Amino acid sequence: MKRALITGITGQDGMYLSELLLAKGYEVYGLIRGQNNPKFEMIEREIPGVRLLTGDLTDLSSLLRALTASQPHEVYNLGAISFVAYSWENAHTTTDVTGKGVLNMLEAVRLHRNADGSDIRFYQASSSEMFGKVQEVPQRETTLLWPRSPYGVAKVFGHYMTINYRESYGMHASSGVLFNHESPRRGPEFVTRKISMAVARISLGLQDDLQLGNLDAKRDWGFAGDYVEAMWLMLQQDQADDYVISTGEMHSIREFLDIAFKRVGIDDWAPLVSQNPAFFRPAEVESLVGDSTKAHETLGWKPKVGFTELVEMMVDHDLAREQRRASRG
Ligand code: NDP
Ligand code: GDR
User: Is the CB of 230 under 6 A from ligand 2?
Assistant: First the structure.
């Protein structure tokens, strides 16, 4: 039986990936941080097969302990401070977790030996935010990186450190440069979920309006359930490598709003949405669109869920959730 250790198990991707690996027959271990983390119970309830181990990406010895306890064949490093806007306010913490945390995990994997002598394959959650002020359209594995936030800079560090451990120590370390991916499990601070939750509440008369930042930003949005499949495929290859994972389609926040509001029968959302400077960023990533030809040709990976289906899935989920809450009184 294969064993996997996932950092960031309580996040959107950690949950989808653990479900995928459990379905494939893996023994799945998840790293959970902090004292009495309330998400411990959420994971036990929603994904009962996962075994949780305490640890923190900033604490190397806790990572070594987690490796000793799990004896994994595969490590998926998904843990990060992942909210770009927050990274300006907490640049040092973001650097420690999202950047130096990768080095800690790589170093722990390098130092650890599985009792049965098996090697560990490593996946790093790199990001399209590394492209930032884009130098090429669409962005691919060879595009020059130009990060625009402390988060993006920290991800670039983790990305190159992963490549460096592969080249220095021959480690099977791959980096997935994933473009934005969303789902009903997306954190409420991200724009897609902020919109789907607000649309559901506005349609039920529970909220009056929605305040957003830059409505002209454009992203290549996919479905998280499709993207975790790509992570797994990367670790099944004979050679470790780096792959862009994206849909190849770019949409604006305005288009997201169009579909989301239409789903609840509202054609004109303009009176309901305003722009608040508080949600603008010191430096914006205006547009991102990826070319995942390499992933398609080498991994056989392709996204299954399209943009409209994704938006409708998120709105439907939040509508049902609000209706359940309302019926409970
Ligand atoms: P989330 O923000 O949903 O999850 C982040 C996870 O990291 C949480 O489980 C969080 O734990 C954990 N974490 C935070 N700080 C630490 C720490 N100090 N030690 C250990 N774990 C920690 O992110 P996603 O699931 O959306 O993304 C997964 C990864 O992929 C992240 O690295 C993200 O940066 C990257 N990524 C995401 C993309 C996306 O569109 N979703 C695109 C490209 C890359 P807790 O719940 O306790 O806070
Ligand atoms: P992003 O996602 O920064 O791309 O990072 P987010 O959803 O936060 O922002 C996308 C774009 O929407 C604009 N925007 C707003 N964003 C938020 N959060 N709230 C608003 O009110 C709002 N109004 C407009 C932003 O300015 C931005 O242009 C996500 C994270 O998951 C990262 O961890 C990951 O690496 C990248 O995706 C790829």
Answer: no
Q: Whose CA is nearest to atom 8 of ligand 2?
A: 190
Q: Tell me, yes or no, whether 214 and 90 share the same domain.
A: no
Instruction: Give the residue numbers spanning the domain of 107.
Output: 3-182+223-245
**For the chain, the helix, strand and coil percentages under 3-state DSSP, each to the nearest 5:** 45, 15, 35
pLDDT band at 34 (very low <50, low <70, confident <90, very high): confident
Same structural domain, 208 and 98 = no
Quick one: 125 and 204 in the same domain?
no
Q: How many domains does the chain have?
A: 2
Ligand in nearest proximity to the CA of 32: 1
219 alpha carbon, closest ligand: 2
CA distances from 132 to 84, 170, 219, 254, 307 (A): 11, 29, 11, 20, 22
CA distance 326 to 204: 9
253 lines ligand 2 (CB under 6 A): yes
| Structure tokens that stand for 306 in this block | 């399209």
Q: How far is the CA of 207 from the centre of ligand 1 (A)?
A: 29
How far is the C-alpha of 292 from the C-alpha of 106, rounded, in Å?
26
CATH at residue 313? 3.90.25.10
Check whether 127 has a pLDDT greater than 80. yes
- For residue 63, pLDDT over 80 is answered with yes
DSSP 59: -
pTM above 0.90, yes or no: yes
| 29 and 87 inside one domain | yes
